[in-house]
Design goal:
Length: 191
């Protein structure tokens, strides 16, 4: 039997997304964003939702570009810090020792040490309530070669992305593979 938990912001798992932006003066900033994910395949797009009170909100409105950086498990502390500190008060890159790299495609920095990066130009802004959703067209995906499998496709077990459990505010690693999508379902017998 299922128990009602009421109206909550819960989806398991939630990816840990670190959003990179520049401020008006060109200072790089990064923010841990829990609310986000892919939202369209053509054009390839990602949606992130953030509060107006954040430093990143103003940067996104000003620069109309952002990156989505996927940290590996070895950067869990730095990823969490990006969600604790305010870029308006602190230089998060100096504090973490991570390296901002200038994108050649969009007006936003990405994090050199993180294995997966999506470079995005802002296409839509939607006021939802407490959060504003920013939709960006993915202009390029960059991945460390060490995170690729034999076929040249991203290997989840080599990428080691961080997952977030919103209800208990905890980070997790990825578990074991269960099977190939659009394949294991073929084993279901139709009667």
């Amino acid at each position: 039997m299922k128990k009602s938990l009421g109206q909550k912001t819960i989806v398991y798992p939630t990816p840990v997304l670190i959003v990179g932006t520049y401020d008006k003066a060109g200072k790089p900033n990064a923010m841990n964003v829990a609310w986000g994910g892919l939202c369209c395949s053509s054009p390839p797009s990602i949606a992130i939702s953030i509060r107006k009170a954040t430093y990143t909100y103003g940067n996104l409105v000003e620069r109309k570009a952002f990156t989505v950086n996927i940290p590996s498990e070895s950067y869990a502390k730095e990823a969490d810090y990006f969600g604790i500190a305010s870029g308006g008060k602190e230089d998060k890159f100096s504090a973490t020792g991570l390296t901002p790299e200038r994108s050649s495609l969009v007006d936003a920095p990405y994090i050199k040490e993180f294995p997966l990066v999506l470079e995005c130009k802002l296409t839509y802004t939607i006021e939802i309530g407490l959060h504003t959703q920013f939709i960006g067209e993915i202009m390029d995906v960059k991945v460390e070669e060490s995170a690729l499998g034999e076929s040249g496709i991203i290997d989840m077990e080599k990428l080691h992305p961080i997952l977030y459990a919103p209800e208990i505010r905890a980070y997790y690693g990825v578990g074991k593979p269960l099977g190939k999508a659009f394949s294991i379902g073929k084993q279901v017998k139709v009667s």
